UniProtKB/TrEMBL annotation:
Protein name, UniProt field: Glycine transporter domain-containing protein
Highest rank taxon of the organism: Bacteria
Residues spanning the membrane: 6-23, 30-51, 63-81, 88-105, 111-136, 148-168, 174-191
Pfam family, one: Gly_transporter
Family: Belongs to the UPF0126 family.
Subcellular location: Cell membrane
Record's keyword annotation contains Transferase: no
Cellular compartments per GO CC: plasma membrane
InterPro entries for this protein: Gly_transporter
Amino acid sequence: MSFLYFLEHLSVAFGAIAGVLAGRGKRVDLFGILVLGMVTATGGGTLRDLILDVPVFWLKDPNFVYTVVVASCLMFVTARYRKTPLKLLIFADAAGLAFVAIVGTSKTLSLGHAGIICIVMGVTSGVAGGIIRDVLCSEFPSIFRIDFYWYATAAFCGACCYLTLHLVQGPNPVNLIVSSALILILRLAALRYRWRLPEFRTHEDTHTVSEDKLPPVA
């Protein structure tokens, strides 16, 4: 078993855990939890494989489905009997992002695509599952909110790191470890210190004065 294959199973497991925990307070049953776990864990990889026109990874290897089911059920049972801190959701989501993004970058590179395509597919792999999860939970996708702090940005930095290491020393499991760790650290640090990109504001948003703040008419 290659390290990349192991890393992909880790990404699926953490994605499933994040999907299950996102269902807290939504009053969903076990089936709903399995759906949330499945789409969060496999959504990004599925979109990646469809775009790259290769067999979808979990259809080709059903072991990934078993990983999702086991991780989701374990989290479902654990959450019913133990308090699940918000930090667990944050870490699971960050770890899932890190592993999925690097797996996506590595797989795209192995197919001979240009570096920029590898970065795009890495970021897409990392964020797509969370977008689908948020839509199913009737929430505005988290990655588009300014208070979500370096989600896609962390994946972008990790994908660039992986490509750089690959150019310097060629294929090496260390590349996967270092670039995944970079994404995880950047994501958690961004949450801790509230790093975010500049907010989009138009000229009108910046300079328009609301009517209730206008001086009274004499």
